[in-house]
Specification:
By secondary structure, the protein is of the alpha/beta class. The protein has two domains: 173 residues, Rossmann fold (3-Layer(aba) Sandwich); 215 residues, Rossmann fold. It has 14 helices and 19 strands. The protein has an eight-stranded mixed β-sheet with strand order 12-11-8-13-16-17-18-19, with helices on both faces. Strands 2-1-3-4-5 form a five-stranded parallel β-sheet, sandwiched between helices. The chain binds ligand PMT.
Amino acid sequence: MSTLNGKNIVLGITGGIAAYKSADLTRRLIEAGADVRVVMTTAATEFVTAMTFQALSGHPVFFDNSDDTEASGMKHIELARWADAIIVAPASANTIAKLAHGRADNLLTTLCLASEAIKCFAPAMNRVMWDDLSTQSNCKRLTDKNWFQFGPASGSQACGEIGEGRMLEVSDLLSSLEHCFKSGELQGLNLVITAGPTYEAIDPVRFIGNRSSGRMGYAIADAAREAGANVTLISGPSHLSPPEVKRFVAVESADEMQQAVMSSIKSCHIYISTAAVSDYRVADVARQKIKKTEDRLSLNLTKNDDIISAVANQQVRPYVVGFAAETENVAENARQKLLRKKLDMIVANDVSESSADKPDIGFNSDYNALHIFWSSKGQLEGEQQFELARKTLLARKLITLIANRFRDNSSQHAKDTA
Ligand code: PMT
């Protein structure tokens, strides 16, 4: 399956004759399973029509200063957050210059500046413009800012000249974009990830559960797979379709989750526990459906084992990452959990009620905001915050951070034991 499957892609089209190839790129992106939104600069509309891209993408096209942005139901900043990747193809010399210098004078350049998505550009211009020193240094500036540069190719040009500056062919653009989602940061490592809620049975039809949807854990599992890891995903009940990981284990209760984790942990390098595991279970589960005969009903609860602590207390243990969903004193509670549970890293999310300045994040939302703390030798060592973004994007950033911390930890361990 293409790594573009299920990804949100913004295709930015600037003014250039190669814009006609972007129609085919839109079609191929959709065939690969991506959801595509097209943004056209004013110059682009002189080469190709928005109608073509609206028909191919199935969504209204975004323009500079147009009401169409409202019609499509997405504001600019939402589009910046929505994107997993932005690809500017063709990228004219003018737009490359603006992007390189952080200009935000039209919708496309504003979006690029406001987005934390993967960003790519496919230069397309006359060979003399391409060779110009300012174009070369602008491209370098962009790649230094972590933009991926695709091409250009060399050959005959629309102006009749021959040389470098042609936009890459669509199939090459597609495979380059697919490659951006394969970082290789966790190549060959074994990861065990838990996700979703646990359900603790009360009787054959009722249970105690929580609001976890599995989104955060599934996004992390997918990002880890894309980074080259062998992922075992152990999930409580969820309505989501599981990502294509190496092994998927569906469980219901905390007890089942614990058994699945402990039997998978032996050769695991990194354990990530996003699951909202029930702290308690019903001591005596009724064998038959409880009847509504009494005005009051008391349930006797007993504590579940702490799965992550069991993993962290093993003699040979993986790198252990916990999550903390908190409604108050978020950072302080998370720091305490990190040290108390002997974790290597904890990822805190604020799940207190949403408000105008704090939209719905955490449980059962596509969005989250993370405050991450990590430790070394039982002491708090560092922290980092990831602002509000889609869980899929946060998952990729978190995987990069975990991969870096894991490597640092392993080399420190090697030095200590030398
Ligand atoms: O699934 P979503 O809708 O996307 O929501 C994501 C999330 C909010 C559930 C997720 O981001 C999150 O924060 N998960 C942790 C939920 C939580 O409240 O954890 P906790 O504070 O109860 O536990 C701390 C850590 O110990 C967690 O890593 C947890 O998985 C682990 N734990 C807890 C209890 C237990 N018996 N065993 C455990 O391993």
